Amino acid sequence: MKTRTLLLTLALAAAFQTLSAGAPEIIESVRTELAPDRRQAVYEVELAAYGVLRGVTSEQSLHDATVQRLRAAGVRFTDSLRVYPADRMGLVRIPVASLRTAGRHAAEMATQALMGTPVRLLEGDGDWWRVQVPDGYIAWVPESSVVEKSPAEFDAWRRNSRRAVVGTYWTVQAFATPQTSSPREVVTDLTPGAIVEVDPATAPADGRTHIILPDGRTAWIDSTALTPIDQWAAQAVDAQKILDAAYALEGISYLWGGMSAKAIDCSGLVKASYFANGLILRRDASQQALTGQRLEADKWPEYEAGDLLFFGSAKTGRITHVGIYDHDGRYVHSSGRVKRNSLDPQSPDYLYSPLHAARIIGHEGTEGITRARDHGWYFDTTHK
């Protein structure tokens, strides 16, 4: 009996190997061609024993491409590949949420998201959410940092609510009453770029506006700190506003993964400065370097305000740093702290030369450069 069972097992294994021949290569081709950046897409897929296609992906298109290619190659399989929900959404509920590469506090910080940022909830274990932020970046965030919204609640938030963006250059505080400025009456601080709702039922008082935070708490904030979200999203692209947002953070500490006025890394400074002008860029310098119009390093005297400068290894071409060009060789970047340097080798502020640059302004709407007004998580874009 044992011999017959062993022979049957071996036969089944041989049959599976025959029927699944080429499957690993097909799965890898989907990963390489359609999901090359693990920061932007989840594709954890395998053809397991007995022909079970299993794992998880963040995109229905990746599931479909995998199934189609396997079937076209004659691979026999049972489809058990999960696709994360596309419409399970939430909002960041704290001033600055830290997103990590894995669901544990000891994991590397990958990026941050500000209060009011809409996030796609991919999966959760009760303590951590795996989320996708508006630029496509995927990471893990503590469950306590996010409030889930039902489809109806999220639609109401992006379609009907009176939202406003914190349009200051610096962090501001919101208080429990319109009159107090006591440290014991602080409800929360809010960083530039945070999104809150304006309470339609309560009139401004004493120069402050009554706001509703994503988790339902309320507070009062100086009215001048708020910009209606429609106005913020409709603003014209302006290199000087982008540079003002960057220079306002001069001296702020560098923090790997940081993306707020509290502490910030090099690509976070770029992203936050452009977001102040209503534009959503990709998160990391290596991703930003693939967007816009490429400009060669030796053409730096022709660079324009707002161009992005990319630094790294001349030998390998690997991008490790980014800054924002101003004029006459001057640029602002976050390296140790937010500061100014020069591309001009003759300048006392010269630091190093870029590998290349990219012009972002004028290329809105191309891949990796999105106007917030055109992003479906911020506004209902279905009727445009």
Give structural notes.
By secondary structure, the protein is α+β, with helices and mostly antiparallel strands. The protein folds into 4 domains: 2-83, no CATH class; 89-151, SH3 type barrels, CATH 2.30.30.40; 161-228, SH3 Domains (SH3 type barrels); 235-374, endopeptidase domain like (from Nostoc punctiforme) (endopeptidase fold (from Nostoc punctiforme)). Helices cover 21% and strands 31% of the residues. The chain contains 8 helices and 26 strands. It has a 6-stranded antiparallel sheet. Strands 10-9-8-5-11 form a 5-stranded antiparallel sheet. The chain has a 5-stranded antiparallel sheet with strand order 17-16-15-12-18. It is globular, with a radius of gyration of 24 Å. The model is unreliable at 6-16 (pLDDT under 50).
Q: Keyphrases for this structure?
A:
31% strand, alpha+beta, 21% helix, 5-stranded antiparallel beta sheet, SH3 type barrels, single chain, 6-stranded antiparallel beta sheet, 384 residues, 4 domains
Main beta sheet: 6 strands, antiparallel
The CATH H-level homologous superfamily of the largest domain? endopeptidase domain like (from Nostoc punctiforme)
CATH class of the largest domain: Alpha Beta
Low-confidence regions: 6-16
Shape assignment: globular
Helical content class? 10-25%
Give the C-alpha Rg: 24 Å
Structural class: alpha+beta
Task: Tell me briefly what this model is.
This protein has 384 residues and is α+β, with helices and mostly antiparallel strands. 21% of the residues lie in helices and 31% in strands.
